[in-house]
């Protein structure tokens, strides 16, 4: 009968230390061998190029030796300070290292993934340094992050299934450096929710403003990529007139809901005093039991404030049909569908991430940041649904 020896905690620590020491020695030896192999290959390449040995006088000589230079190569084994041979006219970096790309794919991938998860360029460099992979400047991290450009392009071309029931459209303003000085650029964003509550940031588009011409590009892009609107129940917007006109052009059969948070803010901009009273009267419209009760609440609002603020009341009456569209949806979804708060939560992260940057170098860098933030949101929410929409499904 075999005797079972119990595995104690001390034995587990012994095995862990043994494994750590073994792999540590392996990494150290591999690091040394890689270092020596690259340097020997560099010298061999120079000798083959010159067609002569050191101090040899021959007519076949093509160039003169010019010592060495010492680049840093970032690898999974740490930072290697290499001794690379050179001549008067060229250097001899072995083919195993891509010219002007002295960091391994592992490090480049680490930089990109850290960038996608919301870490700033300077902080990425510090993280790499803390892992003993060598220092990385913010400029180098920015250069490596340009590999995201292909991912951004793929995101803009990715086809969309026509399965979205609710789409939220809004914009966020960013500062971009231009030859004439800093200028604000609008980043227009589309956020979709399916019937089962799953959600995703669908698209974003750089624009110079929020006119109808500027906004039409985003819904047209959604339509071109496959969101034709057969299952689309409601489009919720911040209330920009240009956006409303663009929606009417691309999705004329889909109901349009204006955000009540933006509308209340616009109403209070016209109020000289009586802020609490006006706000409570306006809130009574969207807190009504149904659409008919909301219309009666507006009549009460109109009778009370028509004399004091005629322009504000007239504008509210014009916008009333789009403000009450959410009443035609299931009642338990009204709170979610009457505002763009779903997408505003994403903008909070955008502002937090971009605040330290003050101003983007160019528009492409702004798109990389927006994509990085949205990519992280989509990954985090891939398996998380909005509970209210799940109940509706």
Shape: elongated
Question: What number is the mean pLDDT?
Answer: 78
Share in helix = 40-55%
User: What is the overall number of helices?
Assistant: 15
Strand order of the biggest β-sheet: 7-6-5-8-9
Helix and strand pattern: HEEEEHHHHEEEHEHEHHHHHHHH
- For the termini, the CA-CA separation is 61 Å
Beta-strand percentage?
15-25%
The unreliable regions are: none
Number of domains: 2
Biggest sheet, open or closed, and with what strands and sense? 5 strands, mixed
Structural features, described:
By secondary structure, the chain is an alpha/beta fold. The protein folds into two domains: 6-53 and 60-97, no CATH class; 161-392. The chain is built from 15 helices and nine strands. It has helices at 9-50, 105-116, 121-130, 138-145, 148-157, 212-224, 241-250, 260-269, 275-286, 291-305, 310-323, 334-337, 341-354, 363-380, 387-392, and strands at 65-69, 72-75, 78-81, 84-87, 166-178, 181-193, 199-207, 234-237, 255-258. The strands form three sheets. A five-stranded mixed β-sheet has the order 7-6-5-8-9, sandwiched between helices. It has a two-stranded antiparallel ribbon with strand order 1-4. Strand 5 and strand 6 (181-193) form a beta hairpin. The chain starts with 8 loop residues before the first helix and ends with a helix. The model has no long low-confidence stretch (mean pLDDT 78).
Question: Secondary-structure map with pairings?
Answer:
Elements: H1 9-50, E1 65-69, E2 72-75, E3 78-81, E4 84-87, H2 105-116, H3 121-130, H4 138-145, H5 148-157, E5 166-178, E6 181-193, E7 199-207, H6 212-224, E8 234-237, H7 241-250, E9 255-258, H8 260-269, H9 275-286, H10 291-305, H11 310-323, H12 334-337, H13 341-354, H14 363-380, H15 387-392
Helix pairs in contact: 2-3, 3-4, 5-14, 6-7, 8-9, 9-10, 13-14
């Amino acid at each position: 009968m075999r005797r079972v020896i119990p595995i104690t905690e001390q034995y587990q620590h012994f095995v862990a230390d043994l494994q750590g020491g073994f792999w540590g020695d392996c990494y150290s030896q591999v690091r040394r061998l890689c270092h020596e192999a690259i340097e020997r290959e560099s010298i061999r390449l120079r000798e083959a190029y010159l067609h002569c040995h050191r101090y040899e006088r021959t007519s076949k000589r093509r160039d003169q030796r010019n010592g060495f230079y010492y680049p840093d190569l970032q690898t999974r084994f740490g930072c290697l300070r290499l001794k690379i041979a050179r001549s008067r006219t060229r250097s001899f970096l072995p083919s195993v290292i891509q010219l002007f790309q002295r960091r391994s794919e592992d490090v480049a991938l680490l930089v990109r993934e850290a960038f996608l998860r919301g870490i700033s360029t300077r902080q990425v460099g510090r993280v790499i340094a803390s892992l003993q992979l060598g220092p990385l400047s913010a400029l180098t991290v920015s250069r490596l992050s340009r590999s995201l450009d292909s991912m951004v392009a793929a995101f803009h071309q990715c086809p969309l299934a026509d399965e979205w029931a609710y789409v939220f459209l809004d914009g966020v303003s960013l500062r971009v450096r231009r030859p004439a000085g800093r200028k604000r650029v609008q980043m227009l964003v589309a956020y979709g929710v399916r019937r089962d509550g799953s959600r995703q940031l669908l698209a974003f588009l750089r624009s110079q403003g929020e006119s109808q011409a500027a906004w039409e590009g985003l819904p047209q892009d959604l339509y071109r990529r496959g969101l034709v609107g057969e299952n689309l129940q409601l489009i919720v917007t911040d209330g920009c007139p240009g956006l409303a006109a663009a929606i009417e052009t691309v999705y004329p059969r889909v109901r349009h809901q204006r955000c009540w948070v933006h509308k209340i803010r616009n109403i209070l901009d016209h109020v000289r005093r009586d802020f609490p009273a006006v706000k409570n009267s306006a809130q009574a419209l969207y807190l009504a039991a149904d659409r008919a009760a909301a219309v009666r609440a507006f009549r009460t609002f109109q009778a009370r404030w028509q004399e004091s603020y005629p322009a504000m009341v007239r504008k509210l009456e014009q916008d009333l049909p789009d403000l009450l569209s959410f009443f035609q949806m299931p009642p338990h979804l009204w709170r979610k569908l009457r505002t763009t708060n779903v997408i505003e939560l994403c903008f909070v992260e955008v502002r937090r991430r971009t605040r330290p940057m003050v101003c983007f170098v160019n528009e492409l860098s702004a798109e990389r940041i927006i994509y990085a933030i949205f990519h992280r949101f989509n990954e985090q929410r891939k398996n998380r649904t909005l509970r209210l929409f799940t109940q509706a499904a």
